[in-house]
Amino acid sequence: MKQGLVQLSARQMLAGLRGGDFSTRELLDAHLARIYELEPRLHAFITLEPERAFRLADEADRRYVKARAENTVDLPPLLGLPIAVKDLITVAGMRCTCGSRILDDFVAPFTATAVQRLIDGGAIVIGKTNTDEFAMGSSTETSAFGPTLNPWDITCVPGGSSGGSAAAVAARMVPAAVGSDTGGSIRQPASFCGVNGIKPTYGRVSRYGLVAYGSSLDSMGVFTRDAQDAALLFSIMAGVDPLDSTSAEIPVPKFELVDDEELKGLRVGIPKEYFIEGIQPEVRQRVLEAVDTLNRLGAEIIDISLPHTEYALPVYYIIAPAEASANLARYDSVRFGLREPADTLWEMFRKTRGTGFGPEVKRRIMLGTYALSAGYYDAYYGQAQKVRTLVKRDFDRAFEQVDLIACPVAPSTAFKLGSHTGDPLAMYLEDVFTLPINLAGVPGLALPVGFDSTGLPVGIQFLGAHFREETLFRAAHAYQRVTDWHKRSPQSCKYTQL
Q1: Catalytic residue positions?
Q2: Helices (DSSP H) in 71-157: which residue ranges?
């Protein structure tokens, strides 16, 4: 029974707990057994808290027993569900390393609002997942604690920066995991690992407790195995938060997804700029096959253009490092984190930041500091912000014509470990299809649509207008009712090498 429990969806797990088919302790034990079987080889986690999790599981079981005895259904919606949280997001009393040696022993004093809402809903955080250092990377290889491996092929990356969360969900270590997305860090690993990943509209989910990388770009979302689970957890995470001045005071719908949902009347845009020369042919084919499926379900397919797409990559790599250089200035070895001994204050700064930060973080700090420096601000950062406005206007105009945009998540399937580590530009190009969405602030949902010839997952991303996440969930659920890509697991692939 233990092995079968980890294969259930989050909704099936919750139904089983409510019905008394198994206990929360049994469910947690099954997932921890899975983690111990695969870790540390897969290295999806940086920190595990099993004792804390079992204590909460026993409490949840007591609540379930009492509810059944009293014949009441008044229970938190996620009671007993095990989840994981990216180690860039705070959970009170747990380490928050951000994948960096500079925060190796830092224990968070508070919990991120979005995670707290899941906890208040009954979810049990069992650990913190691996991440590129301060979310700066596309492969989870810049983590100071070593890379995470892709469960479908351990010679490949899981994507990044939320690679640990995506791999944990794909490998059935947890049914859901929280991640963050600054330039594609939820959607790209979701695509590489064959799971669902939602990046919300900027402002839909509170950023309080998410360690800042690019403050105008950062979003927090969730990985699950299907759109229904994503909608369930997302509806609990989302909403205005007085602790985050950028969170929007816009009501969050319940996201009712019905099994007889049709897509008749849904207008789906296909942007020509996302099917460029050089894209892996199998990625193009799988995505277009998924679009054909949407068409058979009643959606109208419309060719559109997002003409400023080609500028998104250079614009992002001016704005994001500029914001990072300011945000990471707080790691000065004075208040918290690593402190290297030195005779003078400036020597302490230099030694601590030189030792504590990895090469990619240093690279982006230097890029950002240069872009913001006197004499260059207008030419780089100021100009980039103007072009960012043009990218956003492309999406605004597109959503006057269509309800949803469908396109590839990445130009290829998961690449080999180490293949891009010596070539930063090649690594940055992996995010060419995800960066524009963060610049525009619109929501995106990645989901699996098949495999390439080597057995690696291919993902599609559905993009919606601001605060129209329900359109993404509706389309994804309709697609997943007639396909089974989201139900595939890595067990029969090279995963067995673990």
Answers
A1: 86, 161, 185
A2: 113-120
Q: Where are the alpha helices (DSSP H) in 162-208?
A: 163-170, 187-193
Q: Which token pair is 482?
A: 């007639």
0.85 exceeded by pTM = yes
Cα–Cα distances in angstroms (integers) from residue 61 to residues 13, 31, 33, 411, in the given order: 13, 16, 19, 46
C-beta separation of 35 from 173 below 8 A: yes
Q: How many residues does the chain have?
A: 498
What is the separation of C-alpha 446 from the centre of its chain, rounded to a whole number of angstroms?
10
Domains annotated for the chain, with CATH where assigned, are 2-267+469-497 (3.90.1300.10)
Listed residue (476, 455, 461) closest to 413, CA to CA: 455
Burial of 313 (0-12, 13-18, 19+ CB in 10 A): middle
- SS3 helix, strand, coil % of the chain, rounded to 5? 45, 15, 45
pLDDT digits (tens, 9 = 90+) for 318-352: 999 999 999 999 998 888 889 988 989 889 999 99
pLDDT digits (tens, 9 = 90+) for 137-167: 999 999 999 999 999 999 999 999 999 999 9
d(CA 83, CA 125): 5
Judged by phi (left if over 0) then psi (alpha if -120 to 50, else beta), residue 203 lies in: left
pLDDT digits (tens, 9 = 90+) for 418-454: 999 889 989 999 999 999 999 999 999 999 999 999 9
